[in-house]
């Protein structure tokens, strides 16, 4: 039975390849997975992994819906396929963004009497959520009972995350409650998705309550849970509450990561607590995770915004010592700082350094320069730069 299934799949894929070759003679360069379990099909050696990989490539490159019809016809000819193979083919559609084709393929094989499992439907649900079709994934979830498939935690958390990403937080909350009522208890990932959705909607009190619920339900929040809340409180300039969450994380024995530190440092600068930001950055270097490029960029930008340019320059030099390459945002922050203090002569060195390090100026860089030149009465230089930009095809 297993051999018949494998032969059926290989014939299926071989016919797909034959059809593809007939219509499209572009050379085949896909690197398929290698398996030692080889069979002879149509007179040449092949294997199951390479066959599936070839079929997925066809899905990616051949946009006609006739591929699905070709699959349906071959299945009708009696070739046997198992649920693993069918799920792999569904995943092939989904990972290439062809979710509608995946649903069509699903409908075809169901109409032909095939049954799929939890993994199959989890794949479809994930594919729908990734293309912003969380509501459609909810509808699919409601249909699972007729397919004799039980929903599981993976399906629910994918949909909850998708609903939150689409801004449908109330629906995500309702689904969260439905999941619990069915005896499917949420895990830390489910809670994180809903907390993030509530934070994005500005509902921080409800998000904080969910954190408390996790503790009561003996579900251990992870560093991601705390990062979501610290970041949300900081962006709302509620720095005291952000620090409370940060302290709670440490009290529970969880080490803050670079994301936690970056979020709180950014929050300190937003609320003009420059010294607190500097102190936390020093703590990070001494006992926390190693600061990344973004950590330095936040510090440099914060210092420049608060006219503490010398400290920003010191950190910029420190980046070089740590072999961290500044990005365009880092340079833009420093250039803006120099321009605001009228130190136009120092800007050229930064521009030269940008080019030397493969970080070309972007439109924001030029806007900062034009603004700085105009405000420092270097109008001729501003006009010259403006004309050069037009000459390079860079418009306002």
TrEMBL record:
Keyword Heme listed? The answer is no
Q: Does the keyword Repeat apply?
A: yes
InterPro entries recorded for this chain? PPR_P_subfamily, PPR_rpt, TPR-like_helical_dom_sf
Which regions does the record annotate with the repeat PPR?
82-116, 117-151, 152-186, 187-221, 222-256, 257-291, 292-326, 327-361, 362-396
**SUPFAM superfamilies registered for this protein in UniProt:** HCP-like (SSF81901)
The UniProt keywords, alphabetically, are: Repeat
Coiled coil start-end = none
Q: Which Pfam families does the annotation name?
A: PPR_1, PPR_2
NCBIfam families listed in its UniProt record: PPR
- Stated family: Belongs to the PPR family. P subfamily.
* UniProt name for this protein: Pentatricopeptide repeat-containing protein
Species: Stylosanthes scabra
Lineage per the UniProt record: Eukaryota, Viridiplantae, Streptophyta, Embryophyta, Tracheophyta
């Amino acid at each position: 039975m297993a051999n018949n299934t494998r032969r059926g799949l290989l014939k299926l894929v071989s016919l797909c390849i034959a059809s593809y070759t007939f219509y499209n003679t572009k050379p085949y360069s896909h690197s398929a997975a290698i398996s030692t379990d080889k069979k002879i099909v149509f007179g040449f050696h092949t294997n199951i992994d390479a066959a599936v990989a070839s079929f997925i490539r066809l899905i990616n490159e051949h946009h006609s819906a006739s591929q699905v019809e070709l699959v349906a016809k071959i299945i009708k000819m009696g070739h046997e396929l198992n649920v693993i193979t069918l799920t792999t083919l569904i995943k092939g559609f989904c990972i290439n963004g062809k979710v509608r084709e995946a649903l069509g393929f699903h409908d075809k094989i169901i109409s032909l009497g095939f049954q799929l499992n939890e993994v199959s439907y989890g794949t479809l649900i994930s594919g729908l959520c990734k293309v912003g079709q969380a509501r459609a994934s909810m509808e699919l979830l409601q249909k699972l009972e007729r397919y004799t498939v039980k929903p599981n935690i993976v399906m629910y958390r994918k949909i909850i995350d998708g609903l939150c990403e689409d801004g449908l937080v109330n629906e995500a909350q309702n689904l969260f409650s439905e999941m619990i009522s069915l005896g499917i208890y949420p895990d830390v990932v489910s809670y994180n998705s809903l907390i993030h959705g509530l934070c994005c909607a500005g509902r921080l009190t409800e998000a904080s309550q969910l954190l408390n619920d996790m503790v009561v339900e003996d579900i251990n929040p992870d560093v991601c849970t705390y990062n979501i809340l610290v970041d949300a409180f900081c962006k709302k300039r509620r720095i005291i509450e952000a620090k409370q969450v940060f302290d709670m994380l440490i009290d529970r024995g969880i080490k803050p990561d670079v994301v936690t530190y970056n979020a709180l440092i950014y929050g300190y600068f937003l609320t003009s607590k420059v010294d607190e930001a500097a102190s936390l950055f020093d703590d990070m270097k001494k006992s926390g995770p190693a600061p990344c490029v973004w950590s330095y960029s936040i510090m440099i930008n914060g210092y420049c915004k608060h006219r503490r340019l010398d400290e920003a320059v010191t950190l910029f030099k420190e980046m070089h010592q740590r072999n961290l390459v500044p990005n365009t945002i880092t340079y833009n922050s420093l250039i803006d700082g120099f321009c605001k203090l009228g130190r136009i002569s120092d800007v050229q060195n930064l521009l030269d350094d940008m080019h030397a390090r493969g970080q070309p100026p972007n439109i924001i860089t030029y806007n900062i320069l034009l603004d700085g030149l105009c405000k420092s009465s270097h109008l001729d230089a501003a006009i010259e730069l403006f004309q050069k930009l037009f000459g390079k095809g860079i418009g306002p």
